[in-house]
User: What shape does this take?
Amino acid sequence: MEEFLPDRTRALRNIAITFVLLTVVLLGFVVYTALSRARIQVTLTPIQKDVSFQIPLQENVIGAAVPSGSVAATFFESTATMSDTFTVSTPTQLSEYAGGVVNIHNEANRDQPLVATTRFLGPSGELFRLVEAVRVPAGGEVKAVVKADSLGEQFLLGASRFTIPGLADTLQSQIYATSDVAMVLGGADEQVVTEQDIENARQTLLQRIRQQTKDELMSSVAEGDLAEQDYVTVVTQETVSEKPGAKARSFSVSLETRITAVAFKKEFLDALIITQAGGNVTIVPDSRKYEIESFDAVKRSATLTGQAQVEAGIDRGSSIFSPVNFVGATPKEIQEFLQNFEGVANVAVSVSPYWQRQLPRLPSRIHVEFR
Assistant: This one.
């Protein structure tokens, strides 16, 4: 009996120690659980990508349904003819001699030929000479270029009247010249018509024709339904008075065109673009570009082909943001993991207590926030 009691005491003591140790461990776990937490702050940025689209346009007919995936449109067809005179581009190096265009009037009853270098006198005796020979019809007028006979600022005349001293005194009052604009340095320089001059003139006329058509349609089309790119313009005939390389100071262009204006709701187009892009995106303003192709005058249909830039945000409910992924990881490991994904701009991780090197091992103690 005496030998048994010490063993029993020893056993009880071991049990007590074990209990205390387990209590300490459990208490430590409880404290750890209560204090350990982590916060992950994720800064998101929109994801932009280019998408191509091809969308049918179908005539909007009352009582007829537009096929699914198509945009209802109204087609307006017309013809237009327009012409104008354009000046040749200014030469890169201007002459130091003043010059410009004058109108030569002939109020006599017979034609008057004038040779090159014919003298023209300004209001104060400023001497200019005709650059090229002309023939002025009786009772009419022609435009011609004159060049100052010498250097000097006195030749930079404004709108003026010129006499022709080489003519008989009785004719000088009937045959004379006037200028509508001022003489300028290099105004009589020889210039050459270029391909670019003609193309610029052509595009200017086409723009005027489209604007004229748009003005005519204003009462028939809702605002915003007809944009600059909604015109299919076919040039059926073109006349240019000068060929590229010709020496001239001006040239005329005449265009005959057939125009189809295609009016449709742009919001319907945007909705289909979003659908083709997979949804859950927005179109970046002013990024939508397209051309109208395959216009069929019989079927009253066409095709819109183009590109747009869409913007989408990464899904906040994605499994990549699940706290389970971050259990026991270090802040650096989490940052490297999340920043591999497009749409994640920045990641900040804070852990408490501050001495803790890893995130809690309980997902419930890890909080993911977005900003």
Remarks:
- The chain has a mean pLDDT of 88.
